[in-house]
Amino acid sequence: MKVVPLEHDLDKARDYLNDRSLQIGRILPVGDGLLGEFFATGSSFVLVKGRVVDALFSYNGGREKLAPTAWFRVVTDSVSGLREATRLVEETAVAGEKTVLRTNVFGYDKKRLLALKALGYTVGASLPGVVSLDGRRFDYHLVYKDLSSRYKAGVQRSYAKPGLYNPAEVEKAKTPKLKVRGYRPDDRPILDKFATHQNVIRGIGSGVFEGLYPWQPGDFQRRVDSKQIFPLVCEDELIR
Fold first, then answer.
1. How confident is the model over 7-17, as pLDDT tens digits?
2. Helix 110-118 vs helix 79-95: angle between axes, to the nearest 10 degrees?
């Protein structure tokens, strides 16, 4: 098998993904924008067997400190393609000193879940009934593999541990009148302030120490404009 960067053959990758769009939770055809959202150029690859695509996968190194964690996504119908793609991302994760590797599986994709378990992956958490297909409800599984045994010496992160940051006291509203509504453009200044605050960044990551680097001002709005996020706002109507 040969590994090719996705950007070298976008058309072939998009066609391959469209025939297997259920594996990323989609039914309608995938365009270039959605392809880039799930498989970003620079971190996504096509696994080619002869002249035929055997798998499409991506790798994200993450920035978590306490338990260095990487994410990956694989689309394939082939057991050999899944085995080779996971082998490549595991080697990449170990080279980057990651101790945990994670991915997700939709409950209706039972063969994939069994195949990943056979490769040493474990279901870390399941969200019951959040996936819908053909009028039926399925679980959403978060699957991981512990890579710590791959290292001759333990990988330690002494600068990342519980209690590293002191808690900050926040005064509670005296008589709040709360309303949940959709995000509006005039919310941007205050939400930019929230989105770049260190304590908020700690809370919205995939772990206590994930995403310690603040977003740049305006980055939240960029995510809204590109439809990466769809915010709701809880507003105190008395003080706006």
1. 888 888 999 99
2. 50
Q: Residues near 239 by Cβ (< 8 Å), separated by ≥ 6?
A: 173
Q: 0.90 exceeded by the pTM? A: no
pLDDT reported for residue 210:
44
Q: Please report which confidence band the pLDDT of residue 215 belongs to, taking 50, 70 and 90 as the band edges.
A: low
pLDDT at 87 > cutoff 90 = yes
Q: Give the per-residue pLDDT at 74.
A: 95
What architecture does CATH give domain 2-150? 3-Layer(aba) Sandwich (3.40)
Phi, psi dihedrals of residue 197, rounded to the nearest 5°: -80, 135
How distant is the alpha carbon of residue 137 from its chain centre?
Answer: 22
58-67: b (≥16 Cβ within 10 Å) or e: bbebbebbbb
Total Cβ atoms within 10 A of residue 199:
11
What are the C-alpha distances in Å from 173 to residues 5, 187, 193, 238? 52, 19, 19, 10
Q: How many CB atoms lie within 10 A of CB 86?
A: 23
How many helices and strands (H and E) does the chain possess? Answer: 7, 9
Q: Which long-range contacts (CB under 8 A, 24 or more apart) does 77-81 make?
A: 77/20, 78/54, 79/115, 80/54, 81/1, 81/47, 81/49, 81/54, 81/55
Per-domain residue ranges of the chain: 2-150, 178-236
Task: Report the DSSP beta bridge partners of residue 70.
Answer: 101
- Is the model's pLDDT at 174 over the cut of 70? yes
Average pLDDT on 161-181 reads 76
218 phi, psi to nearest 5 deg: 95, -15
